[in-house]
Amino acid sequence: MGGSDDSVKSKRIVFVTVGTTCFDSLVRAVDTQEVREALFKKGYTDLVIQMGRGSYIPTKSTGEDGSLSVDYFTFSSSIAEYLKSASLVISHAGSGSIFETLRLKKPVIVVVNEDLMDNHQSELAEELAERNHLFCARPQTLYQTISGMDLGSLVAYQPGDATPVANFINRFLGFNDE
Amino acid sequence: MDNRYSCFFSDMGFLNVAISFIIGISTLIMIRIFYVVYRSSKPLYSRPPGTLSTLIILGSGGHTAEMINLLAVMQMDRFKPRYYIAAATDNMSLQKARVLEDSLPDKAEVELVGTSQFMQIYRSREVGQSYVTSVGTTLIALSHALWLMIKIRPQVILCNGPGTCVPLCVIAFVFKVLGIRWSSIFYVESIARVRRLSLSGLLLYKLRMADQLFVQWPQLKSKYPRANYVGLFQVANFRLYWTSEETEVANHRIFQIKYD
Hints:
Shape of chain B: globular
Structural class of chain B: alpha/beta
Strand content of chain A: 15-25%
Strand order of the largest sheet of chain A: 3-2-1-4-5-6
CATH superfamily of the largest domain in chain B: Glycogen Phosphorylase B
Helix content of chain A: 25-40%
CATH class of the largest domain in chain B: Alpha Beta
Number of domains of chain B: 2
Strand content of chain B: 5-15%
Number of helices of chain B: 8
Strand order of the largest sheet of chain B: 3-2-1-4-5-6-7
Radius of gyration of chain B: 23 Å
Oligomer: heterodimer
Shape of chain A: elongated
Number of strands of chain B: 7
Distance between the termini of chain A: 63 Å
Helix content of chain B: 40-55%
């Protein structure tokens, strides 16, 4: 069995996060046998689901029978730690969650919630997917995305900064910058 | 003279005067509005101003995070006194602003930061609220917004999207037209808006109430030519961890949903 440090090193964790939303269709899709098997085939060992306000409860599993170990929780005060220790992130399409994951340079599948009204979130996910910074999927297409994904095709996201806006505002207001 | 005729003629005269008066005032106001819109689009001061009182409008979640990103790179000694307004039910945003303000003396500037004030404004409509009561709460929100604006009369307004900013910006615009206070209104559209402006952004753009509007994606620049494209700016030190209070609030919401 070994010490916990050893097992952490050999783990490849998939972290699923829905933020503060209710996103049962994603949690359900992740909890299906085909998705779990696809993840296991890709070499992942653990699946951790942060289910937020969802009402669908996934099935826990220890993974001792040679399959994916599955665990879940609702919220945490240290989501960043979970993101950092993950080898793959599957996230809802909130911009905060997306950029937090990209900043940590983690491969991420962003899943768009089609039940949301006025789904402008999908714009951001699709645009970043087009630029190869992440993969974009819907709950129904999650399995295909996982089986077909090539992590090597991802391009790192370079964060910009807000200085151009600050400079513009300063110039507009007449502040001279030394 | 026959009384009826003289009454009739003086009534007509009065009506004419009233109508001319109304037309005259409306024309003056229209001219003033056009002047305000024209002047707002141009850089404001030819010489560097001293300090400018600044109103920062915070919205929930991602909005606040993006605003903090912007404030982190602005020279805060130019923008003071600073006032923060968030919706009354949005405690987290003001807390984050407080954290930012507390962190400022640690940066290069050595000045005191005691000039910031924190306030809350009533949200026009909570998610899920019935439309009937929404009218009442909107009126309360507007009166409260008006009261706050009269008190603050900021010279600079920074906002980035939440519904709370529209009434405040409209009031600021009216103050400009009436000569009560000239505010420079800067609106930064969220990075999450790629192909369409948010409703707040669209209103301020179409009504030309923002002096300058910034967008972060080139598609929006093509669609809205008067906007300024500034590229993406999710700053490297952006953090979205939940404080224990946020966890508690979120857990409380679950409790309400499950056991109501």
